[in-house]
């Protein structure tokens, strides 16, 4: 579900007034991203579902304090990160949490060699990203790691959509070339750019 920034701000204003339909619209807009982000941190689908529900409970409880001019997605991601990290901290005292996380930490179908190759390729990706010029790296990180659309990144940085597109093409071309030069050509098909 795609929504313009102004429409989302209107929904936040309605949510501040207690609108359940606005809450439902915002929930549908963000739930998959929040779940994926939590799953990326926590590695357990069951715990990620619980955290996702807690994030939206917290959204409902704090709706009156929301500021429509601030990014709702950034706010939700911050709550998600904090709740996920709290669960991980609590895992030291709760063996069932540790067991739940361990059950999903490494894909059962992935053998040791594949795991090592995937980790090495991910390390090469990080190294390639760090070699990008600062502005290009910032654009790449905004669009690929922070979830900004090209248009949102352009607005935030005060540049044109075309510049964002051009910089992303150059960044992806450089990363691909770096992976090829460093022997990671085969594995890049399995990594999300």
Could you describe the 3D structure shown?
- This protein has 193 residues and is mostly helical.
- The chain has two domains: 5-105, Orthogonal Bundle (Rna Polymerase Sigma Factor, Chain: A); 112-190, Winged helix-like DNA-binding domain superfamily/Winged helix DNA-binding domain (Arc Repressor Mutant, subunit A, Orthogonal Bundle), CATH 1.10.10.
- Helices cover 73% and strands 0% of the residues.
- It has nine helices and no strands.
- The longest helix has 23 residues, at 20-42.
- Mean pLDDT is 81; it is low at 186-193.
- Relative strand content: under 5%
Radius of gyration: 19 Å
Q: What is the name of the CATH topology of the largest domain?
A: Rna Polymerase Sigma Factor, Chain: A
**Arithmetic mean pLDDT:** 81
What class would the helix/strand composition place it in? Answer: mainly alpha
CATH 4th-level superfamily of the largest domain: RNA polymerase sigma factor, region 2, helix turn helix motif
Spell out the helices and strands N to C. Answer: HHHHHHHHH
Distance between the termini: 21 Å
The largest β sheet comes out as:
none
Name the helicity range.
Answer: over 70%
Which regions are unreliable across 5 or more consecutive residues at pLDDT < 50? 186-193
Overall tally of domains: 2
Coarse morphology: flat
Specify the CATH architecture of the largest domain.
Answer: Orthogonal Bundle
E-strand count: 0
Number of helices: 9
CATH top level of the largest domain is Mainly Alpha
